[in-house]
Design a protein that fits this description.
Strand content: 15-25%
Radius of gyration: 35 Å
Number of strands: 33
Distance between the termini: 95 Å
Shape: globular
Structural class: alpha+beta
Number of helices: 25
Length: 942
Amino acid sequence: MRVQGGRRRSAILPTLVVVAVLVVAFALFTNVWTARLWYRSFDFGSVFSTVLLTRVGLFLVFGLVMAGLVAANAAIAYRLRPRFRPQGPTSPLLERYREIVETRFIWVMIGIGVVVGLFAGAAASGQTLTFLAWSKRTAFGVTDPQYGMDVSFFVFSYPWWRFVLSFGFAALTVSVIAAAVMHYVMGAVRFSGPRRGGTTPAQAHLSILVGLTLLVRGASYWFDQYGLEITKTSQLFTGISYTSDHATANAKLILAIAAGIVALLFLGNALLQRWVVPTAGLVLLILSAIVLGYVYPGAVQYFSVRPSEELRERTYIQQNIDATRAAYGVANTEVTDYSATTTATAGQLRSDAEALPGIRLIDPSVVSPAYEQLQQVRGYYQFPKNLDVDRYTIDGQETDAVVAVREMNLDGVEGQNWNNLKTVYTHGLGLVSAYGNRAQANGEPQWITEGIPPTGQIAEHEPRVYFGELQGQSPDEYSIVGAEPGAAPIELDTPGGPNYTYTGKGGVSIGSLWHKLLYAAKFADINILLSDRVNSASKIIYDRTPLQRVQQAAPWMTVDRDAYPAVVQGRIVWVVDGYTTSNSYPNSERINLNAATSDSQTTTPGTQVVAQPGNDINYMRNSVKAVVDAYDGTVKLYAWDESDPVLQTWRKVFGSVIQPKSAIPADLLAHLRYPQDYFKVQRQILARYHQTDPGTWYRQSSLWEIPRDPVNAASTSAVEQPFYLSVKWPGDPNAVFSLTTAYVPNGRSNLAAYMAVNADAASPDYGRIRILQMSDTTQIDGPGQSFNAITTNETVSAALRNFTAQGSSQASFGNLLTLPLGGGLLYAMPVYAQRPASSGSYPVLRFVAVRFGQSVGFGTSLQDALDQVFKGNAGATTPEGEGDGTPSGETDNPAAVAALDDASTAYADAQKALTAGNLGEYQSKINEMQDDLVKAQRALGR
């Protein structure tokens, strides 16, 4: 009975192991099979199968090679064991290991093979995209200056062969270790006793393995010379430098030859078995690697390069400049010297009137609470913290619009039960948009489209939003939609209105018991199996954010982190920009993608804009425009930069899933724009690489940096975000939709340059980058200095003090925009008011501040502020008031304007009195200004 009990107990562990293996296997199968169903649901099954088959193939091939090589050498070592082991003291533990090997030899070999094979297979499967890119590589048609090889070798081939060599070296190294251990366990190698040393077969076996390992290491040394072009070999730049060219590269070749010679010594030792010579060679190789790899290049750098660094590195700096500008698409950047005027005169903006509508008064990073309070309608809807900017043609004119999608907020659902969360509250509703350059009389956004269902001046569209930025962010969030014919709809559609049943293409069918079981396991939710709301026509939708869907549909692509909505052909779609990147473009400067694309928006807590991964890159192209349908989740990929060899390579791999540029509908083209993350990377590169002369580049005499955001108090350490604006470039006949940024000199705050790129995808000049470089003879204040000048201006600060004196409102500043106007630079900034500490409060536009040169204007409208700066007549009218009955350029509150004008005049008189030393007159005018500001507040109803 005791024996039977012992047997029963001994069976528990194997049973538990089998159960655990089955659970893990089912979980893996569930993830793979549901991923297959998900990809097929929107016609990207070929992407899934290509990646999966390649991953499995690499896992099996490299896993079996590693397992076979290591296990085979361990088995050879076992077969070469001595028939008679010499007598002498041995370790009991060693005897135990020997007994295990001899009695369970097959299982030991299988165990060794499985363990190393799993690690090797996992490492190889992680190289799936590297292998696919290498297998379908496309020539760049550009050769590197050092070796005369096509750039495609470095971008596609070098990473793959580097992995193969690393794998080979690792496999042989592990084989040496496994064989040596087996020889030791079986007594063929002894470290003590009368017969210390190894048997003849064991020595031959180990000699051959070490020789083969050194041959592979020699090949790696040879390949290392190519790697010098894609690593930071100098503190100055990425790419080959004087020292790496004249010392390190030669050292790599010498070491490759030396490793080959030592490898031959070890191979010869298989016959001679004289370990002194090959061992001495190995020691010399290691010493040579230290001397040639570190000491020699260090000496060349210190004694030859350092005393004359600019001269020595000049050729290599030029190579780095040329490669970097080409790799980041900024080689054709136009830099123009700009002698900006700082004097404001009457009528100065007359020739630039077309650009005034591009001055955005509705800040998309500020007005989200206004959208929430005025357009949310119910607590179970939500808008993002940062809204988006787009363009629509309204009444025949291209109009700047601030847009947002009303998405579902499950946290706002009152009945927090499974039926409501998964089957009733399934989708958001409608696009909300407002004019970007004007507000209503009360300061609220002037709507283009609003309400539920949406009404307004944008064409009728399918308003239901099942896929969006805010929906499906949690990995376990999903909705079950669809119903059998004739069944009553259960999905909430409009508040108080009829319910709805989803009829879109997207989603995975879960009508069968098998699919229910799979998804119940995937989401660990038994309700999927038990609920009667899951019927034969049901679909499950998940992974619902545009970025998720595009990234998974194109795993080879890096996506812009800010998708934006647009109404295209009557439907709401999400537009996502896709990038092809590389970190092995020869001689191009490497940067961190996360650091380059981070700004005051990505670092502000609570924003939906997430940061890019912290990958290092040295090549980037905006090669793809992706579109995700907000209703059915369909993903479409359009080739944008069809000349990009990296994109051409991926089109060979994945075939027809990437549609040609010619397939982009005209309605979609009107909403495409230059992407922000690409622009951020380019502006960081151009902060230094606008200098094309190696001497100037080396001396850093014209180094720029991106200014800190002066407005966003929550991100004082973050740089200013770029802005989409309609900009009339000096000398151009028309204003162009552009993406803009400012530069300041390194370590300074004055303006160094102004950069803009043509962001209108329908324009033949799309992507044209131009920079206005400020003159060294006249200082132009930068964004931080201008913000300080505006907020400390006596008129502005007094007005805001009076405005908030009674605590009824709190002022906040909007985006500080910079535009080249009137022969100089104009700064414009909206000022908002909001009731503090109130759950129903939201910002409304109350004032506009502008600055040109040293002149500051502050009024209830952009027109008022401009006229103040330009001597009472800016020379052009602004679009404020259009659509609400107020003539263009005229304020809706003339009494407030008159009072503010009087305050400005009194302030100017006060300054004159102060300059003349008349303190009594100065105080009198300041008091007069205060009275005028009080009148302005009363006129505004404050």
